[in-house]
Amino acid sequence: MRFRYLIVFATFLLTILLYIDRICISVAKAGISEDLDLSDAQMGWILSAFALGYASFQVPSGMLADNKGPRIILTTIVALWSGFTALTGAAWNFVSLLVIRALFGAGEAGAFPAISRVTFSWIPMNERGVVTGINFSGSRLGAAFALPFVAWLIEYSGWRISFFVLGLVGIVWALIWYLFFRDNPEEHSSISSKELDHILLNRQSSTAKTEMIGLGRIVRSGNMMLVMFQYFCSNFTFFFCLTWLFPHIQEQYGLSTMNAGLFASIPLLFGAFGNWFSGWLVDKIYANGKWKMSRRIPAMIGFALASVGLIGSLQMNEVEGAVFFLSIAVFGADMTLSPSWALCVDIGKENSGGVSGSMNMAGNIGSFLTALAFPYLREWTGSVEPFFFLGAFLNVLALIAWRYIDSEKQITIGTD
Question: Which CATH number is 3-199+211-402 given?
Fold first, then answer.
């Protein structure tokens, strides 16, 4: 067993927990709304509060991971978000829940940027796509597992106790990570000299860094603006599955809580498959000496599938058909993640935390708008169709953007 694989397994488990904690509020929506007397519009603001807090702290959290190292930063943020997960179970009204979920989002913000920094230090270039795919598949598997599991947990113990239990699990992970991980392979006593030499020889070369790259420098890069835009479009599609898919199909097709959880978990499983396939495809194309195309082709295929899946779901009258096409949409949307995050490590290098945090900030502005767009567009138009057409249109624009994204154009402190 290579030691770096244990690192990947640990971050894989973290992404599972990340999305279990994130999606459980969607499953608990009915109980929370009833106990706290909340409307769908108010729940939309609560769901979007997470995305706003998450987006706002992406860049500072990523830069902290670059500066302080992912060991201490991941330990801290996992402990923080787990505390706010537990506090969710203590909410007593709309305002308290709104504030807690915004702080919870801020706590989760640094997770993926810090994992990107782990990837730069520990993972050889030719494994970057697969490792990124594995980590993001964990988030989808976590969300898929959470839907039926949290539904059962809520029925067994109530929604408040469920949040307390999940918070405790996160604290345990944070403690183990601090004891187990080191920021660089050179600092870890358990890694073999053979594996250490392999990592140092095959990971992306380091450059001397005298200062961190600020957000202003990042957004002045036209290449990076395209990266941020396409991730905005990707999250607009996927975040629907984390927020409104469960209540949407439950209400639309008159399903029980458990059946809705099972059906809503299927697109998330397809998302995991999308991450695995895309990660494999990224590394396969890269192995043929085509660095740019290894990022570009999987992403463009993914956005095309996402657009087709969203439109196709509107033509279905039964839950099985709708879920099938939504699964295609999520498979496609998740195909865009491995190339996106691998590209951030490519162009960010030692600043990969800040660069990936900038991309994820833009993506979660899309998440914020998704949580609000679905209930408000449905209320204004009396139909869910405008929301799905809007998502499909954004996917087409993102596909076009990838035609011009360049993984070899690194962001530097100087000029492009």
Answer: 1.20.1250.20
